[in-house]
Amino acid sequence: xxxxxxxxxxxxxxxxxxxxxxxxxxxxxxxxxxxxxxxxxxxxxxxxxxxxxxxxxxxxxxxxxxxxxxxxxxxxxxxxxxxxxxxxxxxxxxxxxxxxxxxxxxxxxxxxxxxxxxxxxxxxxxxxxxxxxxxxxxxxxxxxxxxxxxxxxxxxxxxxxxxxxxxxxxxxxxxxxxxxxxxxxxxxxxxxxxxxxxxxxxxxxxxxxxxxxxxxxxxxxxxxxxxxxxxxxxxxxxxxxxxxxxxxxxxxxxxxxxxxxxxxxxxxxxxxxxxxxxxxxxxxxxxxxxxxxxxxxxxxxxxxxxxxxxxxxxxxxxxxxxxxxxxxxxxxxxxxxxx
Length: 339
Ligand SMILES: NC(=O)C1=CN([C@@H]2O[C@H](COP(=O)(O)OP(=O)(O)OC[C@H]3O[C@@H](n4cnc5c(N)ncnc54)[C@H](O)[C@@H]3O)[C@@H](O)[C@H]2O)C=CC1
Ligand SMILES: O=C([O-])CC(=O)C(=O)O
Prior knowledge:
It comes from Hibiscus syriacus (Rose of Sharon). The active site is at residue 202. Residues 172-335 form the Lactate/malate dehydrogenase C-terminal domain. The protein is α/β, with parallel strands linked by helices. It folds into two domains: 28-171, Rossmann fold; 173-331, Alpha-Beta Complex (L-2-Hydroxyisocaproate Dehydrogenase, Chain A, domain 2), CATH 3.90.110. It contains eleven helices and 13 strands. The chain has helices at residues 9-16, 39-47, 63-71, 88-92, 116-133, 146-160, 173-187, 222-233, 235-243, 251-268, 312-338, and strands at residues 2-4, 23-25, 28-32, 54-59, 78-83, 97-100, 138-141, 168-170, 198-200, 207-209, 274-281, 289-297, 300-304. 50% of the residues are buried. Oxaloacetate ion (OAA) binds at residues 105-106, 112, 144, 174, 235-237, 239-240, 248-249.
């Protein structure tokens, strides 16, 4: 299971990243939807990640080309492409982390919920296969609407008897990436130093950045905080409109997805204090799923962290988002159980 990579370039890179051991576990990662707008750059970024030893690229079409292309990059992982439902099992077998950016993206004028009718079925099918072929994998759900696709996945896993709430994640990292970028611009601080937790869900007002907890502290006026909050909430729409019918965020999402998958791998490998925001099963509020900071470990979620102190504006935002988030969660649960 363990392969010595210490003397290789990947090994040196790993040691620089804080690994004390000379051996790095073999880790298989699958990207489902790997030939898509997110899938392709995400496949590239996962190929660059030295924690990955096997990279399985799956889509309903075009994966052989993507896999051949990415496989020529001289990094640690072995790449294989899988195409069509009959190869899904092979793609998933033995996976430690499965990343799902499969499904249709928005066009201008659509909400993420408008994607439900198509993406709910796609996610349901893929999660049934995960339950069968790699029930212990950590699942990183990117497909929208995340506020519903995560509950759908949970219901599929419950029905299959494989549900482990520590292993299912809605990827909300792009909200954090945006909040950091926008805050750094407004506060005129180095973006590399910025941290901003983003809680709630992943659609419109359910995205709640907690700028009162942003570091470095900048004491921005209330109007700036409100503008930053709105821009973070509308970040996806900003890209959808700029792309004018050619889809939604792909490159920034691939970056965010790669950060989150890397955090999952680090947690699995026993790196301490790996904390990221994610939409997970939660007791932080009365809602069954909620995004907040989570500590990642050898079994996935080790601890769901609380909200911390909120400003009055954030408290209001929290109460306003609950009905929409609740409805999206219930819609997902209902879909999974009736179809
Ligand atoms: N969580 C987040 O922050 C974000 C989520 N998204 C979501 O990610 C999803 C994908 O977006 P894009 O990559 O831009 O779309 P895309 O249309 O470019 O790519 C989607 C890929 O999924 C594939 N696919 C469809 N059905 C499949 C199935 N049953 N199994 C495997 N693959 C399948 C398609 O063939 C296509 O290659 C969308 O739902 C989008 O809304 C996008 C940006 C951010
Ligand atoms: O806005 C969209 O449809 C895609 C997405 O989730 C994002 O960019 O945050």
